[in-house]
Each structure stands twice: as structure tokens, then as C-alpha cells.
Specification:
This protein is mainly α. It has one domain. The protein contains twelve helices and no strands. It is globular. The relative contact order is 0.13.
């Protein structure tokens, strides 16, 4: 119980710290506004050109709300990889390993605290914009619970992937390139801008099997168009991906720490 309290406090402190920077929060709101307004105009043209009221099974208002969720998830991601990278390069890692807390869980606590604040701000801002541009959409209690069921694992998966990218600092001069590749994979294969139903039919099964879609597409689709089949598939992919990523992170960290100690760190 004491250990849980430690990491909860770390998350709480990170959340309060993130709230303290009003300028950063304002810039995020402005960026979210620009992104959503731009895509709203693009989709209006797409729907008008296609001469249909539905694309990928979504009406224009639902498509905009889908973008609200996916963008809120994407833009709320902390740069956990950069913190791990700096810990390795500056030697702070050797000091932090002395602390009576798990290095991974301490970073997770900070990351999740920041993310909850950023996601909430982005979601509120996005909801205001979506209401102004397209109006409300029906959201059932069961659908909202499905959305909440897949959201936490989405955040955890993204943290583990970012942490793994940061650990690459033990072998690479810069992890920025790896982080860039990962972020682009999340955007393109996660269904950030386009629901997976719009992807080429041959590519859809592959995209659905990858963890990226369960991180971005699944929460977005679940919010606007809840589906029990999608829920089951997403939870299966998330559970499998979490187990695999957690094992990889532990294995890579163990190898990295042996490398650190072998070099007198």
C-alpha cells in the first residue's frame, strides 16, 4: 500500500505541476482549436464532394467528435522518451536508481499525472469546438463505459513505447529519430486523422492487429459509435500488447543497467 501511495503522489505532483504552467496550457488550447477547425473544414468539403451524409459509418458531427478524441489522446502524450534520454546522458540515472522507488514506475507516475491533465484540457477544448461547429452527438452510458474501458490501456501502452524509445539512449547518440518514427506510426497506423474503415480493405486487418489502432482509433470510435465486437477485439490487442511491451521494457532495462554498471555508472 505504501508503494502505491508513493507513485500516486508522484502522479499527483506531476499533475499539479502541469496545471501551474498557464502559458503552456493556453498554447495547447490554441493548437487544438486550429487543428480541429482545419479538419472540420476539410471534412465538410469531403462530405459535400462525396454527396453523402456518412463516411466510414460516421456522420459529419460524429467524424468531428471522433477527431476530438483522437487528437486529445495524441496531443496529450508527454515526452517520456526525452526524460529517459536525458537521465542516461547526464548521468542522473545512476542517482535515481538509489532512490527507494522503481525507476520505471516513477516515470510512469509522472507521465500519467501529466497526461490526465493534458487530456482533460484537450478534451474540454475539443468538445467546445465540436459543439460550436457540429453540435452534440448522442452518447449512451454503455458506450461511454466502453470508451473508458479502452482509454487507460491506451495511455499505458504509449508510455511503455515511449520509455522503450528512451532506453535506446544506451546504444544511440540520439533517440529523437526513433521517437519521430514512433510518433508517425501512431499517427498513420493509429487512425488519428482517418477512421480505419477508410483505409484500403487489404490493409485494414493488419492495422487492426497492431497496437496503434487500439491506442487511438479504438477510444475514438468507441466514443462516437460504440461496438461490443470492437471492444472485445481492442481489449484483446491491448492486453497482448501490454504483456509483450512490458516484458520487452523489463528485458531492455535489465540489459541497459548491466551495461551501465559494467562501465562504472
Amino acid at each position: 500500500m505504501k508503494n502505491i501511495h508513493k507513485y500516486t503522489w508522484i502522479a499527483y505532483t506531476a499533475a499539479r505541476s502541469n496545471l501551474a504552467y498557464a502559458a503552456e496550457s493556453t498554447s495547447r488550447l490554441l493548437f487544438m482549436t486550429v487543428v480541429l477547425y482545419t479538419f472540420a473544414r476539410i471534412w465538410l468539403v469531403v462530405y459535400a464532394t462525396a454527396r453523402t451524409d456518412q463516411l466510414a459509418g460516421l456522420t459529419m458531427p460524429k467524424m468531428l467528435w471522433y477527431l476530438v478524441i483522437t487528437e486529445a489522446i495524441l496531443l496529450s502524450a508527454p515526452r517520456a522518451w526525452a526524460e529517459v534520454d536525458q537521465d542516461v546522458r547526464t548521468g542522473r540515472l545512476a542517482v535515481q536508481l538509489i532512490y527507494p522507488v522503481s525507476y520505471v514506475l516513477a516515470h510512469f507516475g509522472r507521465s500519467i499525472g501529466e497526461r490526465i491533465v493534458r487530456f482533460t484540457i484537450n478534451l474540454v477544448a475539443g468538445a467546445v469546438i465540436a459543439l460550436a461547429l457540429a453540435g452534440p452527438i448522442p452518447v449512451s452510458a454503455s458506450g461511454f463505459l466502453m470508451f473508458l474501458a479502452v482509454l487507460p490501456a491506451s495511455f499505458i501502452l504509449d508510455f511503455l513505447a515511449n520509455f522503450l524509445v528512451g532506453l535506446c539512449a544506451f546504444w544511440l547518440e540520439s533517440t529523437a529519430g526513433v521517437a519521430l518514427i514512433y510518433s508517425r506510426l501512431v499517427m498513420l497506423l493509429g487512425g488519428t486523422f482517418l477512421p480505419i474503415e477508410i483505409y484500403p480493405i487489404a490493409l485494414q486487418p493488419v492495422v487492426r492487429a497492431l497496437p496503434f489502432a487500439s491506442m487511438i482509433y479504438a477510444p475514438g470510435r468507441m466514443f462516437v459509435d460504440p461496438n461490443v465486437s470492437l471492444l472485445r477485439g481492442s481489449l484483446f490487442v491491448q492486453t497482448f500488447a501490454l504483456a509483450v511491451l512490458a516484458c520487452i521494457v523489463m528485458a531492455v532495462q535489465s540489459i541497459a543497467l548491466r551495461r551501465l554498471f559494467a562501465n562504472g555508472g
